[in-house]
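Private note to self, pasted from the team thread so I don't lose it. Backbone tokens:
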């Protein structure tokens, strides 16, 4: 059987090798390994393959902790030591910046680490009633499949939530609407745990009773979501709760609704906010913008440093939540919030916002290219960019360095999602003198 030498990992966590001028992507293989493989898809410029056997093993290969690894698609890198995972992600970031953006950072920032197990405070479980499997399945999708993995635990969820997967399967199996409940969203806060059940049909009285007994037995709050995310509401008055996470270094409590976007890794988020504020360096008397501000994760920390900050967000509901967070933390005078769709805003997305001394961006995967194109010549002296996509960060870095007079002062990775190929990063841009 033919062998390959694995040179690197791609952005999906697959081993990358070269043979006959083609790239070969081998699932489950690690850099430095010699492996046998089986091709399952051939294209003119690349091939996709599964791992056969490892002839020479990487020193960074470890035994996966989760027994569902390989079948469940939630994780892709549990077989790689967590420190090596971060090194691989940093390599992907550097390669993206250079090959896409033609730019290299003047300094590589130390990676941001945190807990590598039990860290995930948000998740969206798919639910399927599968009689052949004995009832309902609750969990992530199988690898490369729309099927739900047959799982009863999850090592990246906090233990209390991992332990609920099997009881949730039993609960759903007993409901009359078990075939009309496609999703359960998990939102874990500092003092309350919420499960949001997507229900496509009304509950019958026995269903309501079963759900109440489950909530009481396991100490969780239940929300029902008959429509879009904004339709989620407590199943009963007793289920209503103020979810929040704390940023103790800034004396902040950030409140959020169960279906709001928040960072999944609360511990790493705390380090990320600290690092971001250190890099942004907002000062009293300065005016700062926080674009894609969400519920105020960075905005309120900036305000706590004494700067006047404007948070801009496309969701009216998130703007309302951020405004209430400013009030609850005594920062209403320093932090204001504006609703503006930064992707579909007609004309200049910065129109009417005034001049800013510093700017923070934390966009979705699509990046912030339209916003950056609209930056005036006398734009902010420093811009800090928190990214969840190395590719769009690199594209946007090219716009800033090639057309807007900025240099890429520093960049680094944030291991927000250990054991996955997801790459969070942070970059600092300074105006050329």
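Design output:
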């Amino acid at each position: 059987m033919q062998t390959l030498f694995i040179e690197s990992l791609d952005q999906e966590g697959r081993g990358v090798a070269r043979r006959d001028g083609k790239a070969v992507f081998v699932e489950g293989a690690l850099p430095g390994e010699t492996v046998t493989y089986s091709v399952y898809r051939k294209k003119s410029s690349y091939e996709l393959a599964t791992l056969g056997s490892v002839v020479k093993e990487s020193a960074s290969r470890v035994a996966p902790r989760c027994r569902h690894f390989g079948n469940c698609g939630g994780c892709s890198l549990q077989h790689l030591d967590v420190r090596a995972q971060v090194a691989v992600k940093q390599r992907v970031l550097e390669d993206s910046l250079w090959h896409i953006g033609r730019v290299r950072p003047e300094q590589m920032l130390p990676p941001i680490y945190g807990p590598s197990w039990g860290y995930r405070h948000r998740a969206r479980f798919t639910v399927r009633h599968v009689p052949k499997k004995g009832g309902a399945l609750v969990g992530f999708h199988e690898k490369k499949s729309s099927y739900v993995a047959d799982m009863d635990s999850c090592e990246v969820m906090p233990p209390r939530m991992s332990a609920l997967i099997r009881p949730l399967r039993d609960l759903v199996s007993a409901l009359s609407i078990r075939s009309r409940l496609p999703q359960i969203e998990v939102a874990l806060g500092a003092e309350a745990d919420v499960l949001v059940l997507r229900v496509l049909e009304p509950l019958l009285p026995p269903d309501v009773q079963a759900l109440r007994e489950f909530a009481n037995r396991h100490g969780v709050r239940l929300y029902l979501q008959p429509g879009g995310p904004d339709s989620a509401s407590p199943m009963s008055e007793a289920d209503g709760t103020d979810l929040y996470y704390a940023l103790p270094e800034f004396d902040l409590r950030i409140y959020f609704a169960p279906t709001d976007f928040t960072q999944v890794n609360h511990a790493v988020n705390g380090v990320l906010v600290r690092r971001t504020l250190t890099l942004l360096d907002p000062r009293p008397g300065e005016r700062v913008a926080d674009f894609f501000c969400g519920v105020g994760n960075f905005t309120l920390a900036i305000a706590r440093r004494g700067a006047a900050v404007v948070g801009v967000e496309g969701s009216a509901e998130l703007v309302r939540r951020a405004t209430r967070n400013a009030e609850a933390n005594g920062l209403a005078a320093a932090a204001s919030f504006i609703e503006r769709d930064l992707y579909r805003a007609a004309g200049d997305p910065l129109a009417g916002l005034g001049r800013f001394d510093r700017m923070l961006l934390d966009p979705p995967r699509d990046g912030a290219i339209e916003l950056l194109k609209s930056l005036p010549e006398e734009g902010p002296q420093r811009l800090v960019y928190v990214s969840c996509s190395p590719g769009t960060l690199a594209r946007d870095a090219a716009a800033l360095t090639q057309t807007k007079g900025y240099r890429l002062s520093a960049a680094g990775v944030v291991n927000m999602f250990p054991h996955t190929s997801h790459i969070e990063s942070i970059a600092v841009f300074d105006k050329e003198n």
